[in-house]
Amino acid sequence: MVVIEPEVEEEETVQPPPPPKPRPASSSNTTADSSSHVTAAATAAPEANGNDSDGFETASERGVSDNEEEEENEQGHHEPRQPEEDAPKEDDQSEQRAVERANEAKMEGNQLFGKGQYEEALLQYDAALQSAPENSKELRSICHSNRAICLLKLGKYDDAIKECTKALELNPSYIKALLRRGEAHEKLEHFEEAIADMKKVLELDPSNDQARKSIRRLEPLAEAKREKMKEEMIAKLKDMGNSVLGRFGMSVDNFKAVKDPNTGSYSISFQR
């Protein structure tokens, strides 16, 4: 019988590295030469560095003077300049002078008004308006209102209303102008318009007693005026009707108007 043995892989043998070869000993002459070369190089270096003929110097060989440090500080760090105050523009100065002239004229007008010199006061208020800049709305509004009170004293009610209206266009919440315009309307028997101005005053100032008293006084006058105007209108209509009905032998007296107390409307009945 034949026995077959299993195959076994051969292990790879690692060869050890060969031993280092012995270095030959250096001679004393070589060591001496090397030392002499190093010494010579070290001796030559300071001579080369100390040679002034090349004209160069390093930062370590010279110091920086105090003046140079200050120059560097001045060049590198600048103190911030304080901004100069802007001088007032010439236009602003001119406008300010115009306002001053207007106020002076207005004050002169007030003094004349206090003395009862209304015509002269009007001239001063007009001068103030001519001097006051267009954008000085409050000042111009006061001057128009002051002109209105002068015109009220002079009995020029229509002109007073116009001046008050100009004042209110510049300042819609100007209570004095509303009161003065209401007074001028009352003088002209424009009771409805006067009541409207007084109601506007109460909207702006609910505690204004003058406006409240004026409304109580004006409302009956306004009602009486409405009735009077109604009667005048009816009379005119009668005249027109008689001119037409007369051709047929009739007149408006043949027609009777009866007012309904509940609705306030009228019914017409014919009578012979």
Tell me briefly what this model is:
The chain is mostly helical.
Task: Summarize the SSE layout with pairings.
Layout: H1 28-49, H2 66-76, H3 90-114, H4 118-131, H5 137-153, H6 157-170, H7 175-187, H8 191-204, H9 209-245, E1 255-259, E2 266-270
Antiparallel strand pairs: 1-2
Helix pairs in contact: 3-4, 3-5, 4-5, 5-6, 5-7, 6-7, 7-8, 8-9
Keywords for this entry:
single chain, 272 residues, mainly alpha, Serine Threonine Protein Phosphatase 5, Tetratricopeptide repeat, two-stranded antiparallel sheet, 2 strands, 61% helix, 4% strand, disordered N terminus, TPR-like_helical_dom_sf, repeat
Structural write-up:
With 272 residues, the chain is mainly alpha-helical. The chain has a domain of 96 residues: Serine Threonine Protein Phosphatase 5, Tetratricopeptide repeat, CATH 1.25.40. It contains 9 helices and 2 strands. A two-stranded antiparallel sheet has the order 1-2. Strand 1 and strand 2 form a beta hairpin. The longest helix has 37 residues. It is elongated and about 85 Å long.
Low-confidence stretches: 1-17, 25-75
Number of helices: 9
Derived from helix and strand composition plus strand pairing, the structural class reads mainly alpha
Rg is: 58 Å
Q: Could you give a short account of the major beta sheet?
A: 2 strands, antiparallel
SSE order, one letter for each helix or strand: HHHHHHHHHEE
CATH class of one domain: Mainly Alpha
Instruction: Tell me the β content.
Output: under 5%
CATH evolutionary superfamily of one domain: Tetratricopeptide repeat domain
Distance between the termini: 173 Å
| Strand arrangement across the biggest beta sheet | 1-2
Task: Give a count of the beta strands, DSSP E runs of length 2 or more.
Answer: 2
- Chain-averaged pLDDT: 75
Helix content: 55-70%
Please identify, by name, the CATH architecture of one domain: Alpha Horseshoe
